[in-house]
């Protein structure tokens, strides 16, 4: 599986949460470790507070590129929950943006509708974090444990899980798997804020409420049984 094969490989995919119990899917820890691997990256907009966290998406893409993977980016063709003025940290009144169109900024236009993503065409799928995962790919930001997950996101997670292919989840994205795949073991880091070091530690409790199993981990690659 991707998780097992990446263990000990340098550099690490910081903050990446990976489900364990999946087959190798042909990944190797050698020079050009992921050479030829077809990896789908699912975006949720452009901007930490209303879409994909750009730093996380960039880090993922850099590491996949260095390891020789072939990457295709996807996003749902839907409206964002709302638009944030990131210079003020407040909603921009009267604005509406499309998740696919905004995600295309990160993808430099090379992006496809999430409806076209299939497990048979890829060896792994990765979801970067950012509030878009909790606002656009799901309603977690509003509904917590009672949230709903976008239908295409749910389909993709279930299809990759059924196919035994790796699923990578960054930052807040593990809540998607916790909701869709009951009993899945994931991490969002620590379960206590520790003086602000882990500002969203409360998410761990929500993951448990969703039916998932949470593991306390540091910021590094982590591997769990799905």
TrEMBL record:
This is DJ-1/PfpI domain-containing protein. It is found in: Mitochondrion. Keywords: Mitochondrion, Transit peptide. It comes from the Eukaryota. InterPro entries: Class_I_gatase-like. One of its GO terms (cellular component) is mitochondrion. Signal peptide: none annotated. SUPFAM superfamilies: Class I glutamine amidotransferase-like. NCBIfam families: PRK11780.1.
């Amino acid at each position: 599986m991707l998780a097992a094969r990446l263990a000990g490989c340098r550099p690490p995919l910081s903050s990446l949460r990976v489900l364990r119990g999946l087959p190798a899917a042909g990944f190797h820890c050698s020079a050009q470790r992921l050479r030829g691997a077809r990896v789908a990256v699912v975006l949720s907009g452009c901007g930490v507070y209303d879409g994909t966290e750009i730093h996380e998406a960039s880090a993922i893409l850099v590491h996949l590129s260095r390891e020789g993977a072939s990457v295709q980016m996807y996003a749902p063709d839907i409206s964002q929950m709302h638009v944030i003025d990131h210079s003020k940290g407040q909603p921009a009144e009267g604005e509406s943006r499309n998740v696919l169109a905004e995600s295309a900024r990160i993808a430099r236009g090379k992006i496809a509708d999430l409806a076209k993503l299939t497990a048979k065409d890829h060896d792994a799928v990765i979801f970067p974090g950012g509030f878009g995962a909790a606002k656009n790919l799901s309603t977690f930001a509003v509904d917590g444990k009672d949230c709903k997950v976008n239908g295409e996101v749910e389909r993709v997670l279930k299809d990759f899980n059924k196919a035994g292919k790796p699923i990578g989840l960054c930052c807040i994205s593990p809540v998607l798997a916790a909701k869709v795949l009951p009993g899945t073991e994931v991490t969002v880091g620590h379960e206590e804020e520790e003086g602000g070091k882990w500002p969203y530690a409360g998410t761990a409790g929500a993951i448990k409420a969703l039916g998932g199993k949470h593991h306390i981990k540091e910021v590094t690659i982590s591997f769990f049984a799905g």
